[in-house]
Protein: ABC transporter ATP-binding protein
Organism: Herbaspirillum rhizosphaerae
Amino acid sequence: MSFLTLTNVSKFYGDTQAVSSFNLSVEKGEFISLLGPSGCGKTTTLQMIAGFESVSGGRIELDGRDITHAKPNTRGLGIVFQTYALFPHMTVEQNVAFGLEMRKIPAAERRDKVAQALALVHLEKHGKRYPREMSGGQRQRVALARALVIQPPVLLLDEPLSNLDAKLREEMQFELRDIQRKVGTTTIMVTHDQSEAMSISDRVVVMEAGHVTQVDRPLSVYEHPANRFISTFVGKANLLEGSVLRQAGDHADIDAGGMTLTLEAVDSGLRSGAQVLLGLRPEKIKCVAAGKGRCDGQVSQRFFLGSQWMYSIVTPLGELTVLIANDGADMLEPGQSVGIDWNDHNLRLVSANRTTAATAISAAEVA
Ligand SMILES: Nc1ncnc2c1ncn2[C@@H]1O[C@H](COP(=O)(O)OP(=O)(O)OP(=O)(O)O)[C@@H](O)[C@H]1O
């Protein structure tokens, strides 16, 4: 049985349904990210787990206990919310000790636990300081220590790094994951930053308009996005419109921009003539000499991203975004003609007008 389970959890604010039939089973020690655009229901879901928002329907269980309607303070969860500020009039040590005092932990044990928690976030030398004497990243680590010191069964994080600048944010992502691995606390983090969700989590829950649309490991969400929205929200994607020429076994030939493209590993049910949307990640496209690829294109724009070059290339398939590692080799010039190539297995089916099995072309019919 899973450690934390949400079954058909929903939330209405008046007539507005903020969360709809949310189902999720979290294993002990997992790091889960709730990822989605603004207003999709991430924070509401986290608040319902914390007990700060009531549940309109469904059930939440923690370690076999039904906590759907339990008071927040009886759930014993660790919480780091963006707005859950430190107490300004207390030192770092006092802030971290607060939850232990509430739990009437004896002073000597409290001192030990506070020292351990501060060591965990590398702030053992800063215990006597006040929050105003700390940087944003240090304050964030104090908040984390304060949440972890009570050894909560689940740690809930709502955009915990969003106030930090890009570099510090990246450092804190590594640190957060490192600390979570050491402590092994089951963690659920809300973020709208796809790269943050991908780099930190064991699994990502993608939400759209109150619904869960995909739950998977980061690599699977990136490589096999469940729909058009996810393919562009999680990373960049070139979307190509086409129509099915034929399907034979798990391969299909697709007409796109007057070219015949091969789609691998498709399940059955693609009808000849059906409209499909294909996805091709920018870094999966190769630029070769003009005339040597599947088609030629003309470079229209070039952007320097540091480790990569990003090009816009006009092709018979439309304007494609292409990412090429900055390996010191000659870059492409705007106006230049190039050949475009990719491996068939990197072309993905994003969506299709499917038909019933009876009208689908079977492999036998095509053969
Ligand atoms: N207290 C409330 N009363 C009424 N509607 C609310 C309330 N809180 C949230 N909502 C609505 O519920 C929906 C989900 O909000 P929620 O804050 O969960 O989204 P989110 O995905 O966390 O967004 P963000 O990334 O912007 O924080 C939104 O349409 C929001 O306007």
Remarks:
- Residues 13, 16, 18, 36, 38-44, 192 surround adenosine-5'-triphosphate (CB under 6 Å).
